Amino acid sequence: MDFEHESGRFFKLDANGQLLAEVTYQSIANNTAYAIDHTFVDPSLRGQGIASQLVKSVVDLARTEGKTIQPLCTFAVHEFETKPEYGDIWRRGAAE
C-alpha cells in the first residue's frame, strides 16, 4: 500500500478524505532519533499487515536520515521486539 507522508506521519485516506491508516512519529534526542508514538488502522483494513507497513515506512525514513527509532506505542514496540532486522536502529531508553 502506498502512503502519503507529511512531517510527523505516514497515512492513507479514503476517496472521501477519511483516515484509514496512520503512524505518527516525532523527533527526539536533539533530532537524532524518532519516537513512534501512535499507529491506527481502520477496522475494515485490519489483518492485512498495514500497520507493519506503516512502521516500516518510518524505519526506512530513519535509515535514510541516519537516525534511530524509539518505539513508544504498543504496536511499534511489538514490531521492534519481533523483527530482528530493526535491531540496528532501535533506540532503547527514555524518550527525550
TrEMBL record:
Domain of life of the native organism: Bacteria
Positions of the N-acetyltransferase domain: 1-96, 3-91
GO MF annotation terms: acyltransferase activity, transferring groups other than amino-acyl groups
PROSITE patterns, per the entry: GNAT, GNAT_YJDJ
InterPro entries: Acyl_CoA_acyltransferase, Gcn5-rel_NAT, GNAT_dom, GNAT_YJDJ
Protein name: Uncharacterized protein
Source organism per UniProt: Lacticaseibacillus brantae DSM 23927
